C-alpha cells in the first residue's frame, strides 16, 4: 500500500506541475492601437522594412503586402516575397482581413487558411499613411511597413523605440532585404 500511495502522490505532483506550467502565460500590458484607420487610405502596397522572425517568412526577400477593400466588407490581402534571395521565386499568399467590431479598423483578423485567423493590430500610423507599425497583442509578431522599399532612418528608429515601449523584443528584429526594388517602388 505504501508504494501505491507514493505512486499517487508522485502522479498528483506531476499533474499539478503540468497544470501550473501550462496555465502560466506571459503577462503583457494592454496593447494600444491607433484611434482610427481609413481602410481606403490604408489600401495599396506596403513594403516590409523589418519584422520579428516568423517561420512562414524564413528566407523571404523583397517582401510586400497589398490590401484592397472588397465590397463584401472584408479586405483582400496579398503577401509576396522572393524565396531565398532577391532573384528567387516569387511566392504569393492570398487571404482576407476582417475589421474587428468597435476597433475603428485599427484591429483586424487576418485569415490565410480557414478556419484560422490571426491578429493584425495597427499600433502606429503616419497621418499621411506612408509608414506603419503593426503587431499582435502577444508581442510575438511585429512588422514595420512603408509605402516605399526604404524608410528614413529617423522614422525607423522612432518606430523601433515605440515598439520597445510597447513591450516588443526589438533586439530580435530582422531588417528586410528590399534590394530588388528601387526607391521609386
TrEMBL record:
Residue span, Lipocalin/cytosolic fatty-acid binding domain: 37-177
Source taxon at top rank: Bacteria
Alphabetical list of InterPro entries matching this protein: Calycin, Lipocalin_ApoD, Lipocalin_bac, Lipocalin_Blc-like_dom, Lipocalin_CS, Lipocln_cytosolic_FA-bd_dom
SUPFAM superfamilies listed in its UniProt record: Lipocalins (SSF50814)
PANTHER family assigned: APOLIPOPROTEIN D
Family affiliation: Belongs to the calycin superfamily. Lipocalin family.
Name of this protein: Lipocalin family protein
Organism: Pontibacter rugosus
Higher taxonomy: Bacteria, Pseudomonadati, Bacteroidota, Cytophagia, Cytophagales
Amino acid at each position: 500500500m505504501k508504494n501505491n500511495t507514493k505512486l499517487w502522490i508522485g502522479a498528483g505532483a506531476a499533474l499539478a506541475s503540468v497544470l501550473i506550467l501550462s496555465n502560466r502565460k506571459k503577462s503583457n500590458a494592454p496593447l494600444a492601437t491607433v484611434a482610427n484607420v481609413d481602410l481606403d487610405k490604408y489600401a495599396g502596397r506596403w513594403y516590409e522594412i523589418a519584422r520579428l522572425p516568423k517561420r512562414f517568412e524564413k528566407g523571404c526577400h523583397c517582401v510586400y503586402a497589398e490590401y484592397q477593400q472588397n465590397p463584401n466588407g472584408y479586405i483582400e490581402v496579398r503577401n509576396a516575397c522572393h524565396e531565398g534571395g532577391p532573384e528567387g521565386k516569387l511566392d504569393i499568399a492570398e487571404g482576407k482581413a476582417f475589421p474587428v467590431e468597435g476597433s475603428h479598423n485599427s484591429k483586424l483578423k487576418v485569415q490565410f487558411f480557414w478556419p484560422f485567423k490571426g491578429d493584425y493590430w495597427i499600433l502606429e500610423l503616419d497621418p499621411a499613411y506612408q509608414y506603419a507599425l503593426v503587431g499582435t497583442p502577444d508581442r510575438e509578431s511585429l512588422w514595420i511597413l512603408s509605402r516605399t522599399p526604404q524608410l528614413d532612418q529617423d522614422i525607423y528608429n522612432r518606430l523601433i523605440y515605440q515598439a520597445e515601449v510597447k513591450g516588443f523584443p526589438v533586439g530580435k528584429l530582422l531588417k528586410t532585404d528590399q534590394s530588388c526594388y528601387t526607391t521609386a517602388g
